[in-house]
């Protein structure tokens, strides 16, 4: 069993990668390493996948065998687990989720005591133990498991606390798409308690329908709902609630780049911790240029909110995110939090007394085409002919970029082409896809 960390923990099909046996070993290896680092309790949350209960049992067995105590949180958004990990003190957090993937996949994400994704050094130590034989501690030292029933209410109260006390959402009608995932209870409750009229979709999980034709990867659903209900905003979360796409009252779909710009624009402080913004290699060139025009510095991290968070820590800044909708407001949260990001964007616009379209009128994106190609071997991108072809395309594009990379969470190649002329970007994206197909 060759288990390796990807860009967001372990992830893969339940039938042959994230199996009960794999979770047993992950629990034991992680627990062993965490005990060496001085942590003896794990808090475990999960999303709504049918495999969640099965894998939770295997994972907690591995932790208990390593002498780790376990607190079971039940279904809870990934950022909710990160929050409780930090507030419950001297514990580490684990989330059983494959984020925006469908129900056939699942995964394991691990947080340190500060509610941040664990470092690569810790990941390497866990990977090393995964190759060892699973030997439980002596019986007198095995861990214990407890249910923690306050997880949902605590996360609701925390999210509400991120909105200024003098701001009320009572004048707003908001549609929320919970992706039939981990947010299906808590997120609607948060907006209701803040006074909004809430219309909920994607809140009937059955174990199989997580992210199915809904959620942040299917924004047309929330766009249609906003127009139908004449709502002020639409909020589309993903299966584990760490990313968000927002739709304004006109039906405009706002991705992570748009949300970052709104938050940067609305912030009056642009020095010290607020002097810079972190994006990723996928962030639109237009975002970089527009952020700099606002007076900020802008740097790019690798894809993954973990790497955005690490860059923010390195730079000493507080705002960053990904085009996909992972937004980190580090003055409030330690990881990507779709609900908190939505609350921050909406409350910021209310304070400004502006519509999103007004704020974004000075934000001009360069046309960007994104596509994915399923492959059996992601190393195909290292083919010399493909590398040469990409260099030719890059030399032809005067304003823009070409980025072809292996997905860190799926058996896919991600293709991104930016160009000042959309037709050229479309053509080259298609050409690159055809080139890769010819080599597979």
Architecture blueprint of SSEs:
Blueprint: E1 10-13, H1 20-36, E2 41-46, H2 52-65, E3 69-75, H3 78-87, E4 92-96, E5 105-111, H4 120-130, E6 145-147, H5 151-161, E7 173-177, H6 186-193, E8 197-201, H7 219-229, E9 233-237, E10 244-247, E11 253-254, H8 256-266, E12 276-280, H9 285-293, E13 297-301, H10 305-315, E14 319-321, E15 327-329, H11 338-352, H12 356-359, E16 368-374, H13 384-396, E17 402-406, E18 412-418, H14 422-438
In CATH, the architecture of the largest domain is 3-Layer(aba) Sandwich
How many domains, in number, for the residues? 3
* Helical stretch tally: 14
What portion of the residues fall into strands of 2 or more residues?
Answer: 15-25%
If you had to describe this structure to a student in words, what would you say it looks like?
The two termini are 26 Å apart. 37% of the residues lie in helices and 20% in strands. The chain contains 14 helices and 18 strands. Helix 1 (20-36) packs parallel to helix 2 and helix 13 packs antiparallel against helix 14 (422-438). It is α/β, with parallel strands linked by helices. Strand 17 (402-406) and strand 18 form a beta hairpin.
């Amino acid at each position: 069993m060759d288990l390796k960390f990807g860009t967001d923990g372990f992830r893969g099909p339940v039938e042959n990668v994230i199996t009960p046996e794999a979770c047993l070993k992950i629990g034991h290896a992680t627990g062993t390493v965490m005990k060496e680092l001085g942590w003896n309790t794990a808090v475990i949350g999960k999303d709504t996948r049918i495999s969640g209960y099965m894998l939770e049992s295997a994972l907690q067995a591995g932790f208990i065998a390593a002498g780790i105590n376990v607190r079971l949180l039940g279904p809870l958004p990934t950022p909710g687990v990160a929050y409780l990990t930090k507030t419950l003190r001297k514990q580490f957090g684990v989330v059983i989720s494959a984020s925006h993937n469908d129900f056939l996949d699942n995964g394991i994400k691990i947080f340190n005591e500060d509610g941040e994704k664990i470092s690569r050094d810790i990941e390497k130590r866990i990977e090393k133990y995964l190759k060892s034989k699973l030997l439980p501690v002596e019986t007198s030292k095995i861990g214990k498991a407890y249910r923690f029933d306050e997880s949902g209410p605590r996360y609701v109260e925390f999210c509400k606390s991120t909105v200024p006390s003098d701001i009320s959402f009572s004048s707003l009608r908001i549609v929320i798409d919970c992706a039939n995932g981990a947010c299906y209870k808590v997120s609607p409750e948060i907006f209701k308690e803040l006074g909004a009229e809430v219309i909920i979709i994607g809140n009937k999980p059955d174990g199989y329908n997580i992210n199915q034709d809904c959620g942040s990867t299917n924004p047309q659903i929330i766009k249609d709902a906003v127009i139908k209900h004449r709502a002020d905003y639409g909020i589309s979360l993903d299966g584990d609630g760490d990313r968000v796409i927002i739709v304004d009252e006109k039906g405009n779909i706002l991705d992570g780049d748009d949300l970052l710009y709104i938050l940067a624009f609305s912030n009056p402080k642009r020095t010290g911790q607020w002097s810079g913004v972190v994006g990723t290699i996928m962030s639109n060139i237009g975002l970089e240029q527009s952020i700099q025009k606002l007076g900020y510095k802008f740097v790019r991290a690798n894809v993954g909110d973990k790497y955005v968070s690490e860059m923010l820590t390195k730079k000493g800044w507080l705002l960053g995110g990904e085009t996909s909708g992972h937004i980190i407001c580090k003055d409030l949260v330690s990881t990507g939090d779709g609900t908190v990001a939505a609350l921050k964007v909406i409350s910021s616009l209310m304070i400004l007394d502006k519509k999103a379209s007004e704020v974004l009128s000075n934000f001009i994106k360069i046309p960007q085409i994104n596509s994915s190609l399923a492959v059996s071997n992601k190393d195909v991108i290292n083919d010399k002919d493909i590398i040469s072809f990409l260099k030719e395309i890059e030399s032809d594009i005067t304003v823009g970029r070409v980025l072809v990379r292996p997905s860190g969470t799926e058996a896919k190649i991600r293709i991104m082409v930016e160009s000042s002329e959309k037709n050229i970007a479309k053509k080259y994206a298609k050409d690159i896809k055809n080139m890769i197909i010819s080599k597979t």
